[in-house]
Amino acid sequence: MFWLTWRQHRAQILVTGGLLLALGLLMLVSALRATAYLAEYAPPGCPGPAVSCSAVNHVVYTDHYRPVFFVFGLLPIFGAALIGVFWGAPLLAAEFERGTNALAWTQAVPIRRWLTVKFGMLGALVAGAALALSAMVSTWRNVFSGVTGDVTMEPGNFTITGIVPAAWWLFAFAVGAAAGTVTRRTLAAMAVTVAVICLALPAVFFSRSSYAEPARVVTADRSSVAHGGGTLVRESWVDPSGRELTAPPPPPCPLPAGVDARSDRAQLLGEECLVGSGYRHAVYYHPVDRFWRFQWTETAILLAGALAFGALAVLRTLRRRG
Amino acid sequence: MNTLEAPSFRRGGRMNALETTGLGMRHRRTWALRDCSVAVPAGRVAALVGPNGAGKTTLLRLAVGLLTPTAGQVRVFGRPARESGERMAFVAQNKPLYTGFRVSEMLRFGRGLNPRWDDAAARRRLTELGIPLDRRVGRLSGGQRTQVALTVALAKRPDLLVLDEPLADLDPLARDDVTRGLMGAVAETGLTVLLSSHVVSELEGVCDWLVVVNGGRVQVSGDIDDLTARHSLLTGPAETADALAARLPVVSRSGAGRQATLLVRDDAPPPDPRWSARPVTLEEMVLAYLRAPDAAALPRPALSPVH
User: Where are the transmembrane segments (chain A) (predicted)?
Assistant: First the structure.
């Protein structure tokens, strides 16, 4: 059964392994080049948050970090979709479509064992590949931590580091398998898989901020919160008496002549004026130390989804195996 | 005949290889198969015959546990079909194999999934047939593909081999090769075979047990020699046909002008001397039943082999 699983799915396994290797090499080269650049040009104490570092930070960010991150920025969507389409969808749909279900499930090995080995082995490989990618990205990212600050809670990063990638890929794999039992055609199952993942991605992304009650801080300088990393949930104004306002108050100072009230500058001056008059920002955000708590929450949600779709696939296969 | 009557579990001391009781399969609102009670005694080569869409494939897929019956049950050597994967082999109509695999990989598939697998016999069989083991399954001819599928099924060393239209899409030479391969395996191991076909002529001399399904119901079930011996074809003047037909169990009648032909389920000589009788062939008998879906010849005590 293990040989059969390998033989039937070796194309996916080898291509996925090859892509991971290519990404790993890309990151290795990028990390080595960035390290070499920093060793040569970075002033003492850099990279870091100091003002003297901003020039070198900027160069490393635009020349070394951003081009590679651009590749990963697409991975949360494409990685999961590719796993669902090429690992999950054909798993059962191809058997039904080619009629080989009548071959595979009339052997001495019972269908339950067939399903257990296929789901177990391929699921383990999918999860392993996702964790390997996550580990590589984290290692690569560490080289740039001085340049970018802590961005682990930023949505793009959060989805490809930690254990969440494994949960996403397993979820996509299960969606694909379940779609295969519904359509019983590989191409249709692939389309359904992409549709479900396209719906699930924004649903999960937008519900992320409600995994926990956001922390609230009242401050005159809102950039202090942003610099600490973490994700912003919402902001409002607090008036001098400490009451939180639902709508932004009108700025008490008149605008200098020649400034358009609609411009960014007017906005900035208005905010400065409000702070000067005793108003404060109330910032609701998730600090970076919630990273693992959020990782586990999202993993639990996605694994529950993966289990539901996996169970659907197994039950439908057992009920309509012919 | 009472079609609901369950076939006896053992007959003449021999176990039935396959036995269905009140088997029914409904796809949404239509019944693909209904009230189907048939038995295939062990050691037989049974033909499952019926027109296209009669429910043959449904019956076979129920027998091997690929489908879940809506009603009734299937037993293979006395045990539920789904627990009999080890004793049973199935070759579906399109001879499913993994087209990307090499022939040797198909054998490895069989070896990995079946504890009773006989690899040496499988290799020997393919070598004798001249099928290269390193050829990709997708590049085999139709006949070779059927032979590989049959080899994978036989190497499981099944006690019951179920074949859905094994000879369809084959040229006459390949048909003969496949039939002979099958007969060789039967002679060697004594396994029970159930094969479906809608071409009756190709079953003569191959099968010794007949099951006819028509319109989702079992019409005929029994030993072929018994059945043909118990039917005869009467020919005589058309004006006396009605009187004769009223006294005999007529399966079908035909004829034009003054001559009438009756196929009757009776082996006694015709009571009217103006009528002549001759034995029926398997094909004539099957066609007569297919033309008369309401007629039935199902097992009854007199048809049982030994008591």
Answer: 68-94, 115-138, 158-180, 187-206, 300-318
